[in-house]
Design a protein that fits this description.
about 425 residues; alpha/beta; TIM Barrel; eight-stranded parallel barrel; seven-stranded mixed β-sheet
């Protein structure tokens, strides 16, 4: 789902976005209830503190904190869909404390793992929707989308995840409510096959259950899909999840903001608002657009103190860090904030981190409501802190007009132009 874009591609995105307006040109249908969509990390089982399906239940158990879960991931290999990690998905035995229903898995029961926990969650909350996120190499998707392979490939995905034939002796026909397709990214020669693949998914899914959701995850710019009829794609799918993050990262020699909603001073690159505007102008109705929000941080060290570290040269820190890790640094660093985008950054005089916090997430939720977007899309749920602070801010922001968000971090706003 998340990919680190090459510097050349990022430069292309920057140049393309530089010509776009910061806001939407025109709203279409306003979503009455923006959805909160979160990618559940299959690999979270192996963290030092495992991320569990049970973590999605709100205090008191009245409702889950998300409207839709995109389970990451199902594999796309050898012309077929398949379960990606049988241990995490089907075989792992959760304790009573870890389980959604408070009952330990029996090793004798054939259906265990994350997918069984999702089944229990859905039984408890019937209105919750769960999609399987199909992920794989671009070359595999290109092969699967060819005319001679397309129908059988889609049929395998339907059989495995929609009809629920997960493994011999394990059937869960009503677990998944749709399919999320994450092809990064169709090249121009693949454009027609990309559209035809979505048409085939829609045809076969409608034959099984007409209400099934078909969604796609996309890059921040429609120009990353050369030759693709974006309006035709939008007519086939229920949601277009924009990966509106990684506008900058440790591959850059200069610090910046990972996913600014609007353009702060000195910043002429891509922003979330410009990305939303670009996809809308390309033909996607606003109420189908999901704004992507990262729950992870990027950092640099050896950063000079000018500008409190923002837009300064530095040495990138390899990999990303979850929001929970960033919180552990706050006693020895200062939180700064750009008033235009409400994006925070953390700086201790040497090390710089760009990330999201409850204030910036709430600000983005307000934007989603004001512009009539389809909702927020979280990558990924397991990188929140133990209190689910970011997810709760998103949930509150989309559920009602959020009041000023009060948090205990010491924060300084740095003047910037809107």
């Amino acid at each position: 789902m998340r990919r680190v874009f090459s510097p050349r591609l990022l430069l292309t995105i920057t140049l393309l976005f530089g010509t776009l307006p910061a806001g939407l040109a025109q709203k279409t249908v306003t979503a009455s209830h923006p959805r909160l969509v979160g990618y559940f990390p299959q690999w979270g089982l192996y963290d030092d503190q495992p991320y569990l399906v049970k973590n999605l239940i709100s205090p008191g158990g009245h409702a889950p904190l998300v409207d839709q879960i995109n389970y990451a991931q199902g594999f796309v290999t050898n012309g077929r869909c398949s379960v990606a990690d049988p241990n995490a998905d089907l075989n792992f035995s959760f304790s009573a404390q870890q389980s959604v229903n408070g009952i330990a898995d029996s090793p004798a029961h054939p259906f265990r793992g994350h997918l069984h926990q999702l089944q229990l969650l859905k039984q408890r909350y019937p209105h919750l929707r769960i999609l399987i996120s199909l992920e794989g190499r671009a070359s595999d998707f290109a092969f699967d989308a060819r005319p001679e392979n397309r129908e059988s490939f889609v049929a395998s995905c339907i059989d495995t995840f929609i009809k629920g034939h997960l493994a011999p002796g394990i059937d869960a026909p009503n677990l998944f409510d749709g399919i999320d397709l994450d092809w990064e990214f169709p090249r121009e020669p693949d454009a027609a096959n990309f559209l035809a693949l979505l048409q085939e998914f829609r045809r076969q899914m409608s034959a099984v259950r007409p209400e099934l959701r078909l969604t796609i995850a996309t890059g921040p710019s429609p120009h990353m899909y050369p030759g693709t009829d974006v309006a035709a794609v939008a007519a086939l799918v229920d949601q277009v999840g924009l990966m509106t993050y990684d506008f900058i990262g440790p591959w850059s020699d200069t610090t910046g903001l990972i996913a600014p909603l609007s353009a702060p001073e000195q910043f002429e690159g891509g922003t979330v608002a410009r990305s939303v505007s670009a996809w809308h102008n390309a033909g996607v109705p606003t109420d189908k657009l999901l704004m992507g929000v990262p729950f992870y941080a990027y950092g640099w060290h050896q950063v000079p103190e000018d500008g409190h570290g923002l837009f300064q040269e530095g040495t990138g820190i390899h990999g990303d860090r979850p929001y929970g890790y960033i919180q552990t640094l706050m006693d020895h660093s200062t939180v700064y904030r750009d008033p235009a985008s409400q994006a925070p950054w953390l700086f201790d005089g040497d090390v710089f981190w760009t990330y999201e916090d409850p204030i910036s997430v709430a600000h983005k939720a307000n934007f989603v409501r004001d512009q009539g977007l389809g909702g927020l899309m979280i990558w990924e749920l397991g990188e929140d802190n133990n209190d689910a602070a970011l997810l709760r801010a998103a949930h509150q922001g989309l559920s009602s007009t959020p009041p000023g968000v009060g948090i205990s971090e010491r924060s300084k706003s740095i003047g910037a132009s809107p």
